[in-house]
Amino acid sequence: MIAQSFQYESPGTLAEAISMLNKYGEEAKILSGGHSLIPMMKLRLATPEWLIDINGIPGLSDIKKEGDVIKIGALTTEADIEHSDLLKKHFPLFADVTKLIADPQVRNVATIGGNLAHGDAANDHPAVMLALHATIIATGSGGKRSIPIDEFFQGFYMTALQHGEILTEIQIPVPSAGTGSAYHKLERKVGDYATAGVAVQLTLDGNDVCNSAGIGLTNVNPIPLRASRSEQALTGKRLTDETIEEAARYASEDCSPSSDLRGSEEYKRHLVAVLVKRMIRKAAERARK
Asked: Signal peptide location in the record (predicted)?
């Protein structure tokens, strides 16, 4: 199919883009990478009358460390994330996740902000950001607003972004020593949505006791899901086969997958348990190094 006709704007500043959003109202959509929005427009699942292309706005594609926070601009591409030495140093799971997103052509254009703002539980970065306890920065006519990641995803393709706001930055706490992270998803073919995916970040002390844990699940719930009981099962305990098994069981029980062409509900729950165990062990191995 072909998208219905629309008007195109390309503002040069963030203030212009926000002004256009307020002017055109609910009929306007923000365009960054476009790899979620454009296919929906072609299928006429999305029919905006105005597209506001923010790719020409400077200052929204930096990756930098300020104090104890890593800041990632919303227009940072997946390719830039994949090759960032700063992110590799602190968060090895970014090297895991970016290589599993589509293909190099897509990663050269697709943006992390668009991935998150789309609000799709099948996307990979929502689970990653849950595991990393990120904060979303939204900018509107009233200035900047910080949104904890646990409050950002509010429903099926629904986020906490208000009308006239643009996701401009992601902030992630710099992990302490002894922290490791990992991500993996099972997909039917390269570039497909995950059948299931798991992101894990752990901080261990010298005795292999888990001081903190973050676990996010991909595409096994209507909205991106934090595996809270699994995190609690690990925190304050030594990483043993028993504690890892318990965390995996809780994640399998607490998710809510749907049976579809990618597999049955039972299969997906089993897959979540397998991936949770594998990613805990992989994150722990990295933490010990």
From this structure: none
